[in-house]
Amino acid sequence: MNELITGTLEKLFEGTVWAEGPVWIPGSQTVRWSDIPNNRILEFNPATGGTREYATAVEYTNGRTLHPDGSVVQCSHGRRRVERDHDGDVTAIVDSFGGHRLNSPNDVVVAKDGTVWFTDPPYGILPGTVEGHEGEQEYGGCYVFRFDPATDELTPVITDLVHPNGLAFSPDESLLYVSDTAGPSRGVPFRMAVYPVKDG
Predict the structure, then answer these.
(1) What is the C-alpha to C-alpha distance for residues 116 and 75, in angstroms, rounded to an integer?
(2) Is the pTM of this model over 0.85?
(3) pLDDT reported for residue 5
């Protein structure tokens, strides 16, 4: 039986243009998120009630998730890559597919087997963008990818969405949910799709 969860909504911070990509950081006991157009990452500390700028000039980072090793895996619109932030040391995980730059990775999850799954819509490279740098779609699509760090293999796993955006696994990782935020202007409804996961 479904149980209704109730609570009180509390505003923790205001002053972002828009806020995305929240993740709880166990090591610092803080919530970290992106203020994309302001090109910064913020952190809220529940113990003090204060918010600080974790980093600035961050190349329009968007979604992020916690890696099992405690580092943060995040998407960079500006660098057109998925990257790892380990205590402020930021390094690339993957930035190209078939010799072409990615579009602007948007959201990311890390599976229990260590593979990195992410969406790659064009929002950070569109004309007039305030969340990246204008550019071209080099590989000709907007895919959901699976990157295996053990083999360095990047595989497109979903290619039938227009602008894949947020994504999440079911608790047992048998299903992958992906939002498509292209919308009616691109000839599709705003929608949530779900895909069975088999053999990776």
Answers:
(1) 11
(2) yes
(3) 82
